[in-house]
Structure formats: structure tokens, C-alpha cells
Amino acid sequence: MKTLKILFLALSLLGFLDASYLAIKYYQGEAPTCAFFKGCDVVTTSEYATIFGISIALLGAIYYLSLLILSIIYLDTKNPRLIKIGTVIAGGGFLFSLWLIYLQIFVLNALCIYCVASALSSTSLFIIGMILWKKSSY
Amino acid sequence: MEENQKITKQEKRLLRREERSLEQIQVARKRLFRKITMWTGIFAGLGLTLYLMILFVNRPLPETKLTTEISANDHIKGNPAALTTLVEYSDFQCPACASYFPLVKKLLEENDDAIRFVYRHFPLPQHKNARLAASVAEAAGLQNKFWEMHDLIFENQFRWENLSNAKASEEFTKYATQLGLNLPKFTTDLDSEELKTRVEADYLSGNASGVNSTPTFFLNGKKMLQPRDYENFKNIVLGA
């Protein structure tokens, strides 16, 4: 139980750092180029990298930050409702990640390692959230 | 006497209650203080990490120099005697290169007297038609149509970038026909080892100069920061 909760916190932190790195790159990085190992250049400069002009990486960073804050509050207060809220948010992130991975594989034909890492962490967060939810409802 | 004792008992009780509530207030204060410290620490830590990441992304890159001098083998456009030399390492299948192509073209059209422009191949391994496209441009070059082919290849990138090697070859042959090239010679040249070596030589010279992405521009032998737009590009190049 405790390990899973710490893991949830650690994954949200990793996801936050990962997404922040992409967001910083997006807003401050150089003009797009093609580099060895295609992937992030194709993906992060594609038309799918933004929603209504906001970088998806930035939205991702906010999403992970909210999960991070939520899990710290949970570890502090032990309020079981927070598990449910966190799992619902993680579920949304998981579905969104599925969509992004679909776009990378089938539309852009390029995988960005940072985006894959984010999809993996949001999937794990969702799974851990569900386990914690189930355990806490006994 | 009894009355007095009663009062003192009541007073004691009150006093005790007061002490207890004071203790509670102190405990609550401590808890609040602990929370404030915790959250301040967390946000300070996250802020510091973000700051370090921003510094990392914007770190100045080591200055890289062009190691291979311009020679008669190079494809030169503009004024060969110009004081400003712009070398581009480029990949015909790279979308970023295709988006810089009109910028370079405009820059040369507007300032063809001031710039000596050199195009070198840097076909990235993940672009499966890039090497072929480079050879096609070289084969056209043997019939003095390198730049015409270079333009056609970039302008039509979207047509051939996702084709198989064989299909892309057919597409390129169309451009050769369009340029009025001698087709049998073009086809033979395209298969020659000499052309492949020529493209590879450019690629190796790029490697030696620290090129790891395309397009990479060298302005008078020094690696240039990627220009953001045409005005930026023009100012940097003409300012040199």
C-alpha cells in the first residue's frame, strides 16, 4: 500500500519533469530541425503538438503537477476521497495518452521517446490509482 | 471555607481548560507551520528544478567550425567571389530543410552578389529516400542541372517522401524528364559508385564538422544558430 502510494507520487514527479522538459523545449527551443533518430522533432513540431495554440506538453505538465500535489496532500491527510479524484484524473490522462500514441504511430509515423515515457507513466498512474481505490474501499 | 474551596476548584477547572485550549492552539499552529514549510519546500524544489531545466535547454553550444574547405567539387550558387560564404548541410527528405528551402532561395535571389552559397548533402539514416534524392541531384549535376533538380526535389518533397525507394525513383525520373536531361545517362549515373562516394564524402565532411541535425548552416566557417524566420536569417547572414 505504502509503496504504491510513494510510487504514485514518484511517477507524477517524473511525468511532471518529463512534460516540463518538452514544454520548455517547445517554448524556448531553437527552430525545428531534423536530427538523428527521428521522433521528437517530427512529433513536437507537428500540428498535433498544440491544442487551441497551447502546447500539449504544457497541459501535460499541469496534469502531472495536479496529480503530484494531490498525492502529497493525500500522504499528509490520508483522506481516501483523494484517491478517487486522483484516479479519475489519471484515467483522463491515460485516455489522452492513448490518443497521442495512436497519432504518433499511425498518423505521424514517428515516436518521441519523451512522449512514450509520458504515456507509460500516465498508464502506470491510472493502474496504481485503481489498485489503491479498490484497496481503500474495503 | 467550603465556599472558597469550591471557587478555587472551579477556577482550577477553568484554568486547566484554558491551558488545554492554549496547548491545542499551539499544536494547531505547529501543524500549520509544518504545512507551510512543507509546501514552500516542495514548490521551491520544483521551481529550482524547472529553472535548472531552462538553463540546460538554453545552454550555449560549443562553437563548431567547418572542417572541410570549399572546393571545386562543391555545388556553389550566388557569387563565387563573395566575402560571405554560407554552407548548408541538408537532407532532401527532412521537413525542416524543405521549410528552409524557400528562405535560402529568397536570400540568394535578393542578394546573389553578396553571398557564396554551398549545398552539401547530409542524408540522415532514418530518411530512406534521402540518399537516393541526393544521388538524383548529383546525377542532374553531371548534366549541369544540379540546382534545378535541387529545387524540384524540395518543392515536391510531399510527393515522394512516403514512397518506397522504387516508386520514389520513378518520381525522380519524371523531374529528370521535365528538366530535359539525357535519361539513359541519368539512369546510368544514378547507379554509379562514383556518385554514391560523392554523397558519402559530403556526409563524412558534415560528421567531421559536428553536424548532427539538418539543416545546419555554417556562416564563414562557423556554425550558425538556426534562424527563426527570413528577416532573422537575412540579418545574420548579411551582418557577417
From TrEMBL, chain A:
GO molecular function, one term: quinone binding
Species whose genome carries this gene: Candidatus Harrisonbacteria bacterium RIFCSPLOWO2_02_FULL_41_13b
TM region(s), chain numbering: 49-75, 82-102, 108-133
GO-annotated cellular components: membrane
Membrane topology qualifier: Multi-pass membrane protein
InterPro entries: VKOR, VKOR/LTO1, VKOR_sf
Protein name (Swiss-Prot/TrEMBL): Vitamin K epoxide reductase domain-containing protein
Gene3D superfamilies: VKOR domain
Stretches assigned to the Vitamin K epoxide reductase domain: 1-133
Location of this chain's protein in the cell: Membrane
Keywords: Disulfide bond, Membrane, Oxidoreductase, Quinone, Redox-active center, Transmembrane, Transmembrane helix
Any Pfam family the entry gives: VKOR
Membership in a protein family: Belongs to the VKOR family.
